[in-house]
Amino acid sequence: MKNQVDYSLYLVTDSTEAILGSRDLVEVVEQALLGGVTIVQYRDKSSDTGALISTAKRLHEKCKQHNIPLLINDRVDVALAVGCEGVHLGQDDMNIVEARKILGDDKIIGATVSSLDESRIAVERGADYLGIGTLYATNTKKNIKDIIGVNGIRKILRFLDAGDDASQKIKTVCIGGVNASNLQRVVHQLCAPRPNTPKPKTIDGVAVVSAIVGSPDPKTASANLQRLLASPPPFKATSSEPHFWFEKEEDEIKALMTASTKATKRVHEKSPLSHNMTNLVVQNFAANVALAIGASPIMANYGDEAIDLSKLGGGLVVNMGTVTPDGLSNYAKAITAYNAAGGPIVFDPVGAGATAIRREATSFLMRSGYFDLIKGNEREILAVARASGFTLHDNSQQRGVDSGDSLFSLEQRAYIVSSLAARERNVVLMTGATDVISDGTRMYAISNGHKYLGLITGSGCTLGTTLSAYLAANPEDKLHAAVAGILHFEIAAQHAATRDDVKGPGTFVPAFLDELYSRGLEIVEDRGDWTALQKIECIKNIPDAKLLEEIP
Ligand SMILES: Nc1ncnc2c1ncn2[C@@H]1O[C@H](COP(=O)(O)OP(=O)(O)OP(=O)(O)O)[C@@H](O)[C@H]1O
Ligand SMILES: Cc1ncsc1CCO
C-alpha cells in the first residue's frame, strides 16, 4: 500500500496566525483535498497533545474520504492515537529506527534532510521518503544554513542515485518556498538530464505550505498547482535533445530580427519597471540607460520593498558589483519576492571569480532563487558555472571586474554558455567583443557593439539593466527578448562611437545615451531597420571537448 503513495503534491499544514489566519485548518485541508493534493502532513509545533489529537482525527476523517494518506509531523504518539498513515520526522525529532519499532513496517516514515550525510543516515535507518530542503528561503524559514537551493537538492539526488538499492528507490520531495510561479521551473531544473545517466533520479513531489494554506482559495490554489505539475513547463527542448526550428540559418536570423523589432516596440509600449539592485559605481548611468531605452528605472536596495515592487510587472537586476553582507540579504529577499510574483530576474555576478567573498556570494545568490538570465563576462560566467556545480578544466583566477582577453574559442564559449543554461534551465549570456547567448538549445554569437563599450565602466551592468526591461516586456521568449536588448544596446553604441562629435570614451557616454534613445524611437516609428547592421551568427556545432564536468 505504502509503495503506491503519490507524493507529487504534498501539502504541509501550518496553523500559525500569519498563514492560516482565523480559518479552520480542517476546512482549509478539505478544500486542498478537493483541489487535488496527493498527501497531507499535519504540522503544528505549538498545540498541546489533546488539541493535536483532536485536530488530527478530524483531518484523518477528511483524508480518508479522499483516499489520501495523512502523516503527522514529529509526533509518533499522535499518529498512533489517530491511526493515520505515518509520520514525518525532522532532524531533531525521534530517531527513525525507534519510530519504526513503534509504528511497524506498514506505516510511512519520512525524514527531513539537507545534506548528503543526513540523507545517507535516513536511508540506512529505513525512511520511506526524504523531504529535501530548504529549497528557497521563505518568510517562515529564514535559517540560511539549511537553504540548499536547486543545486543542493540535485547533489542529494545524485548521491542517492549512486547508492545502494534502498537509496535509489527512496522517494523524494523538495520543500521550501515552492509556489505557483516557481513550481514548474523547480521540477524542470531538478529533472535536468545528466551525462552518462540515462534515467537520473528525479524528485517525486513538491511540498507546499503557504501557497495552499495561506491562499484565500486553497481549492483553486491546489488545483492550479496540480495543473502546473501536469503540464509541460514553458521551456523549449534541452541541450540533450538538439532541436533547431529552422533548416536554414538565414530563416532563423530573419525570425530573430522580426522578434527583436517587436520586442523593442513592446518595451516602449509597456515602459516596464527596471528595478536595479546594483553597484555604487553605475547607479546614475544605469537609471539613464533605462530611461533612454524607454523603461522606468528604480534603484531600490531595500529587500523588503521588493514585495511591492515585484507586483508591478517589471524586472529585477541583481548586480553584485559592490557586494556587502547587508546587500546579500537584501538581494535574497528581492529574489524571493520576484520569484513569487513570477517577474524576471537578471543576475550580473560582477567580479564573481575575483575573491573568495564573491565566489561565496555567487553561490549564495544561486541558492537563493531562480534567475531568468545570468549575464557576465567570460571570467564571471566561468565562476557561475563553478557555483552551479561544474568543474572547469581551467585554473585562471579572475583579476578585476572587467573582462580581459578571451581564454576560449567561440565554440568553447558556446559550449560553456549552453551547458550552463541547460543546467540552470534559463538564458546565459557571456559578454565580450563577441557575445555568446544560449537557452541551452539555441546558441547565438553577436558581434555588434564597439570597443568603447569595453573602455567605459558599467557597460556590462547597464546592459543588464536593459535586459531586465526587455525580459519584463517580452516574457514569452526570454532568449529572443535578450537578443533584442543586446542589439538595441550594441547598435546604439556603434552609432554613437562613429559620430563626429565623439572623440573617445568620455564623449562616447552621452552620445551613447542619445543613440539608445533615437534607435529605439526609430524602431517604434518604423523608421529604422537593424537587419542590415546585425552581426548575429547561429552556432550549431559545439566541441565535445571536456571543458566542463558536472561534479558527481
Ligand atoms: N571590444 C568590444 N567590441 C564590441 N563590443 C564590446 C567590446 N567589449 C565589450 N563590448 C560590449 O560591451 C558590453 C559589456 O561587455 P563586457 O564584457 O565589457 O562587460 P563587463 O566586463 O561586465 O563590463 P562592466 O564590468 O564594465 O560593466 C557588451 O554589450 C559587449 O558586447
Ligand atoms: C569598477 C567597478 N567596481 C565594482 S562594480 C564596478 C562597475 C563595473 O562593473
From TrEMBL:
Native organism: Dothidotthia symphoricarpi CBS 119687
Any Gene Ontology biological process: thiamine diphosphate biosynthetic process
Entry annotated with the keyword ATP-binding: yes
Pfam families: HK (PF02110), TMP-TENI (PF02581)
Catalyses which reaction(s): 2-(2-carboxy-4-methylthiazol-5-yl)ethyl phosphate + 4-amino-2-methyl-5-(diphosphooxymethyl)pyrimidine + 2 H(+) = thiamine phosphate + CO2 + diphosphate; 2-[(2R,5Z)-2-carboxy-4-methylthiazol-5(2H)-ylidene]ethyl phosphate + 4-amino-2-methyl-5-(diphosphooxymethyl)pyrimidine + 2 H(+) = thiamine phosphate + CO2 + diphosphate; 5-(2-hydroxyethyl)-4-methylthiazole + ATP = 4-methyl-5-(2-phosphooxyethyl)-thiazole + ADP + H(+); 4-methyl-5-(2-phosphooxyethyl)-thiazole + 4-amino-2-methyl-5-(diphosphooxymethyl)pyrimidine + H(+) = thiamine phosphate + diphosphate
Keywords associated with the record: ATP-binding, Kinase, Magnesium, Metal-binding, Nucleotide-binding, Thiamine biosynthesis, Transferase
Record-given protein name: TMP-TENI-domain-containing protein
Role of this protein: Condenses 4-methyl-5-(beta-hydroxyethyl)thiazole monophosphate (THZ-P) and 2-methyl-4-amino-5-hydroxymethyl pyrimidine pyrophosphate (HMP-PP) to form thiamine monophosphate (TMP).
Cofactors demanded by this protein: Mg(2+)
Domain of life: Eukaryota
Pathway note: Cofactor biosynthesis; thiamine diphosphate biosynthesis; thiamine phosphate from 4-amino-2-methyl-5-diphosphomethylpyrimidine and 4-methyl-5-(2-phosphoethyl)-thiazole: step 1/1; Cofactor biosynthesis; thiamine diphosphate biosynthesis; 4-methyl-5-(2-phosphoethyl)-thiazole from 5-(2-hydroxyethyl)-4-methylthiazole: step 1/1
A molecular-function term among this protein's GO annotations: hydroxyethylthiazole kinase activity
The family this protein is said to belong to: In the N-terminal section; belongs to the thiamine-phosphate synthase family. In the C-terminal section; belongs to the Thz kinase family.
Thiamine phosphate synthase/TenI domain sequence ranges: 9-212
Gene Ontology CC: cytoplasm
